[in-house]
Amino acid sequence: MRRVIDEFDDRVLIGEIYLPLRRLVAYYGNNLAGAQMPFNFALLATLWSARSIERIIADYEHALPSGAWPNWVLGNHDRPRIASRVGRDQARVAAMLLLTLRGTPTLYYGDEIGMHQVAIAPDQVRDPFEKNVPGIGVGRDGCRTPMQWDATTHAGFSTVSTWLPLADDYAHENVVNLEADAASILSLYKALIALRKQLSQLVTGSYEPVAAQGDILLYRRVSADGAIVIALNLGAEPVSISSSSIGFGHEILLSTFLDRQGERIEGALDLRANEGAVLGTPAQAG
Question: Once rounded to an integer, what is the mean pLDDT over residues 257-278?
Fold first, then answer.
């Protein structure tokens, strides 16, 4: 397959491969002649804790062949929605994690508007897996419900009844409404994507973990343009991070709450419950 796609320009070979990391990275092939990106699903099933995620990142970075391009996945059509797995508050922190780790982020439709897992009644089941072995919780329909575009009938997804039911909150939680809300999770995703385009560190920068404790996940992305710091509070209580851990002279480039841009860090970074922040110098803020 790699030989075939190499005959074409602007192409990439991505493998949907569920394997432990050591076996997964083998799909890069000898001399990187395999897939350009075997999907890394490690975050789909991990315990949502700072230390667990820190260990997964370290193991993945260590296992990657030299020159391999990493990737990260937080949601897909086989697993419950990220907003349901970690909660609506932490879904914003998850967005910042996904879009600031080294490599290509893969975003599952609807996660950018915080779509949640939908309960599927027995007579609404479409997933063959659930139909073949009903009642043991293997159905995947709950994360495959229609995209919530607007508040019209069928959520703007269709002009007729949809194959799967709509979420009960689609009239409020939809693209049109969230685009009008400057503090919405959709606005956060757009701000994170814009920041990736602005900062070379988030595209080609190296990943450097920073020692932290408790619910804090801390790391740097470093390129020739300098370093930026990502600080994530994966807990439901406020935390304080000393400047000796993150460096001095920083300001907040982006908070998951979208309300602290340009705030200077003096002495310590105070994060609210379920808050993440990207830190840089005033020059990096553009």
Answer: 96
Asked whether the beta carbons of 276 and 93 are under 8 A apart, the reply is: yes
Amino acid residing at 218: L
The b-or-e profile of 229-260 (16+ CB within 10 A means b, else e) is bbbbbbbeeebebeeebbeeebbbbbbbebeb
110 alpha carbon, distance to own chain's centre: 12
* Inter-residue long-range contacts of 258-267, CB under 8 Å, 24+ positions, other chains counted: 258/182, 258/183, 258/187, 258/188, 258/191, 259/183, 261/285, 267/242, 267/243
> What are φ and ψ of residue 30, in 5° steps?
-65, 130
Cβ–Cβ under 8 Å, residues 150 and 144: no
**Does pLDDT of 20 surpass 70?**
yes
Q: How far apart are CA 147 and CA 156, in angstroms?
A: 8
What does the alpha-carbon distance between residue 27 and residue 14 come to, in Å, rounded to a whole number? 10
25-46 pLDDT, tens digit per residue, is 999 998 999 999 999 999 998 9
Degrees, nearest 5: CA angle 76-110-252:
100
Are 71 and 43 in contact, with CB atoms under 8 Å apart? no
E-strand ranges in the chain read 14-15, 37-38, 71-73, 104-106, 206-209, 216-223, 226-233, 239-242, 251-255, 268-271, 276-280
